[in-house]
From TrEMBL:
This is YbaB/EbfC family nucleoid-associated protein. Residues 99-108 have a biased composition (Polar residues). InterPro entries: YbaB-like_sf, YbaB/EbfC. It comes from Nocardia huaxiensis. It holds the Pfam family YbaB_DNA_bd. Residues 99-121 are annotated as: Disordered. One of its GO terms (molecular function) is DNA binding. Gene3D superfamilies: Nucleoid-associated protein YbaB-like domain. Coiled coil: none annotated.
Length: 121
């Protein structure tokens, strides 16, 4: 292979590794939050879906409307945690990918000059 082709294959392989690492990272995202009084603990996945909700016995002494508000607030906090983790995974991915936005970086005068379509008359 030529040096240019070797470089292209290397960039593609590096980008593929970065994408695979990002996919793995996204699957590992778990946002969690426990209320200050430790009565509610919520865990969400990387999409923000609740995967675990634990309520302490102490919530039975509160009004249902208060408990529901606390649950929603805890879910928001856990989702914010997951969002921050996803942002970190994206930042790592962005650092790993080529800055030009393309894997193929032509060298030389590919395709001719600005007037090459007119022909030479």
């Amino acid at each position: 292979m030529s040096a240019e082709m070797d470089a292209l294959v290397g960039r593609v392989a590096n980008s593929l590794e970065a994408l695979e690492a990002a996919l793995y990272g996204f699957k590992q995202v778990r946002g969690t939050f426990t209320s200050p009084d430790r009565s509610i603990t919520v865990e969400v996945d990387g999409d923000g879906a609740v995967t675990s909700l634990r309520l302490a016995e102490s919530v039975t002494a509160q009004q249902p409307s208060e408990v529901s508000q606390l649950i929603l607030w805890a879910c928001q906090q856990a989702a914010a945690d997951a969002t921050a983790q996803r942002a970190q995974v994206m930042a790592e991915l962005n650092k790993s990918l080529p800055r030009s936005g393309t894997l193929i970086q032509p060298t030389g005068n590919v395709g001719g000059g600005p007037d090459s379509a007119r022909g030479s008359h």
